Every structure is written in structure tokens, then in C-alpha cells.
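Quick entry, no commentary yet.
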Amino acid sequence: MTTTPRVAIHYRRLPDHTRVYDQRVLLEQDDVVVTLSEPLAMEAPMVHDQRVMLEPGSLVVWFTFPEAWHDIGHFYAADGRSTGLYANVITPPVMEGSVWHTTDLFLDLWWPREGAPTILDEDEFENALAKDWLDEETAHRARAEADRLLALATAGAWPPPVVGEWTLGRALAEVG
């Protein structure tokens, strides 16, 4: 049995918090890296519009695109049911071997399995702007990326095909 490579993702949340996520690398190509989270340890479910997005024991198949201003997570409930797609608007990741660095830019896109895509965390974004945690250029880029993803999703042109190709079943089969 081969060992699945891992990556340590240093995820910075302004103004001064960094969390490191240890994930299994499933696919590494020039245009995308697919990773699998560990089962999530959380105190309470993450909910939007009274629907569970993530819960204790959930898994996420992540899609990171070098030089992109977002990543995509395909969220699954603890029982393996897809709950939807989540895109973090982030700074393009600095990917140095098995150590990556990125900064969260507050805005997110959520597309529930049943329902329409929507931009989340507008209040957090506005708070970050009010506190000068984001410079004007980065804030403009974050807003443009969130709006672009929403427009693409609404037009049926998002997510990219790789997201549909890497289901949880395929990811779990890959790690054995």
C-alpha cells in the first residue's frame, strides 16, 4: 500500500489568525490540486438557511487552482451525502512543495445541492474593510472574484469539470 502525499495549508484569517490544515493530496496537475480533508472536528454544524453545510465528521474534497483567487470545496455530510459547493475567495496560494500559504478574503460563494448560488459573509467583508484589514486593491479583487463566480454559476458555467470528476467516492477510493 502506498502512502498518500499530504500538504500543510497555512490559512491566514485577517487580522492575525493562521490555521494549518493537513490534507491528503489526491491529484496534482499544473492547473489544479485536489485534496481531501480529514473528518472535521467541530463543536456545532455549519448551517446556512437552516440547512447543514458541514457537521462533525464531514469530509471535503478541495480543489486548489494555482494563481486563482479562490478555491472550491465540495462539502459532504458525515454520512457522505453532498451538501453543496463552497468557494473561498482567497489570495492566490503560494505552493512550496508540501507547504502552502494563502489568506482568506472573507467573501465566499455557497451553492447548496438544492438551491441557488449565493455570496456569503458580506458582513465580515465590510467589517474587514472598516478595520483596514484589506487594502483597496485586494478588496476590489476579492469583490470582483466573488461576483465573477456567482455570474458563472448562475449562467451554468461553473464549477469547472474537475469538480464533478472527483466525487467523495472517488476520493475515498484513492486513499484506500
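second:
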Amino acid sequence: MYLIGMATGIFGESFVRGSLIVAGDATQTAQNIIRSEPLFRISIATDLFAYTSVVVLTWALFVLLRPVNRDLVFLAVLFRIAEVATHFVATLNSLVVLRYLSGGEYLASLDANQLHTLARVAVSAQGAGLNTGFILTGLGSTVFAYLLLKSGYVPKPLAAWGVFSSLLLATYAMSVVVSPAVGKYWVVAMAPMGVYEITLGFWLLLRGAAITSSSVSAA
């Protein structure tokens, strides 16, 4: 789920939106989306699939880490489920974008420039919603990584990196709310988290969790 969620998320946000959205040019962005509407719709579907995979991932981590600390694992689940809900709502803005650009008769009172501007605002609203959800992503991942560190299920340096990168993501996302200019440093915050999730995903896939009787005695 770590690997699937990462792959689908990168496709929707980086590959599709990165190629269609033109910063500072609402009209060009609108034209790109209209010309590539099927691709844009596919990106919405892959986003929704990615968020659904987070639900499955959260359930799996809950089952894995429940013996370590029931209270903390439940807190982590709450953070991640709230994240998914936030991201699902944010993705509705992409459907709003398509409504603005649909050419429907009910939009006749607005001219093309106004519709393009409204569509661009909806795109920005989705980005703001995703960033807000990343606060919850970071907090939930921090708790899960701490439990992995405590359990010894995975190498401790990897789990410790998870705590660091997750806190970094949450701090970055909150900082963007306070000062939008921080957003230009997104790579600094996202890259460590990407390394953690990909590495952990492959580790669990190929090696599995090193569960022993002592690792679950903390329950």
C-alpha cells in the first residue's frame, strides 16, 4: 500500500497536474485541462485510489502495531483517517474545475475569463486542501513510525528516519499555512518522507516485520 499509494499519488499530482497547470496563467491552464480532460479525469480517479489505499494501509498498520500500544495506534489511525477525509473533500475541487469548464448553459452568465479564473481558484483550493491534509499525514505517520521504532519490527534507523521525516512534513505543511512563501521549499519536506515510505514499503514487502514475543510484550 505504501508503494501503490506513492505511485498513484505521484502520477496524479506530479505527472498530470504538473503538465497541465501553468502558474499565473488561468486561461492556459483551463485550455490545457479542456484539451486533456480524459487524462485529467484519470488523475482524479488515481488520486481517489491513492487515498483509498491509505485507508487499507492504516488498517494494516493498526493490526500490526496494536500489540505495541493500543492507545497510540488508535491515535495514529484517527490522524490518518482525518487525513483521508480531508483529501477526499479537497479532490472535489477537481470535479468543480470540470464543471466550470464544461460549457454548460447554466454558466452562460459568466464569460470565458471569469470561468477560467474560477477554475484556477478551484485548482488552488485543492492544493490548499492537500497541504492541510499533509499536517494530519505527518502527525499520523510520526506516531506509526514511533511505534515501529519501539517495536523493533523494522530496522531502528529506518523507523527513526520515519519519525524525523514525518514531523518535518507536518511542520512544513503548517508553515505553509502561516507563510505561503514556504511552499517553494516543498522538495525539502517531501523528499525525506518519500524516501521513508518507499524504503519501508519495500522492506515490509520483501523482508516483512520482525515480530517476536518480546516486541509485543509492551501491550
